[in-house]
Amino acid sequence: MPIHEHYRPGTPCWVDYGALDPEGARAFYGELFGWTFRDAGGYSFIELGGRVVGGFGRVPAGLPASWNTYLATPDARAAAVQVKERGGSVLLGPVPAGHDGRLLFALDACGAPFGLWEGRRPAGIVLVDEPGTWCGHELWTHDAGFYPGLNGVEVMAPPEGMSPCWLTFFATVGRAATSARAVELGATIASGRDRATIVRDPWGALLALT
Length: 210
Prior knowledge:
Layout: E1 12-19, H1 22-33, E2 36-39, E3 44-48, E4 51-58, E5 66-72, H2 76-85, E6 89-96, E7 101-107, E8 113-119, E9 134-140, E10 154-156, E11 165-170, H3 175-184, E12 188-192, E13 197-200, E14 206-209
Parallel strand pairs: 1-4, 5-8, 9-10, 11-14
Antiparallel strand pairs: 1-5, 2-3, 3-4, 6-7, 7-8, 9-11, 12-13, 13-14
């Protein structure tokens, strides 16, 4: 079972979902991946078989529903300054996240939303690379230089008709069957590749199934 708790700076260490329709999104993803949701006071932890695999909350004001990638950082306050110096904008934070650390949510210079996480103990998602958990990230951007310390991320120009964004890949037992089930639940297929199917959930959030 892939347990991952330590992340180098610039490495994706957490994902969460910003929901426009929390009740509907819980039902959709619970049915699709078998997830359950544990409330933590206005924010929920997504769990699979009792292991944390991500977070779940309401979308920040003015933004669409989305899957959000968080990068590890040793200093969220310094990272906030760097975001602004590089042409991005800070939407939230840095703010404490309980006793675990501090988080920052921002837009990069191309307008793609992302987060930064400064952990005070082993940080990040506990279970990865299993069916129903994230297994990779892709950055769609015209300016990868905004992230000078990026680790373990594939970078590409946004596909035609797509805006700059971070794309989270989720492992499945069977990609074709999971994609078909997503469509039955109200999602649409955005595009297909040899190794992944990119899906748009019922609220417009993109994710990739592998």
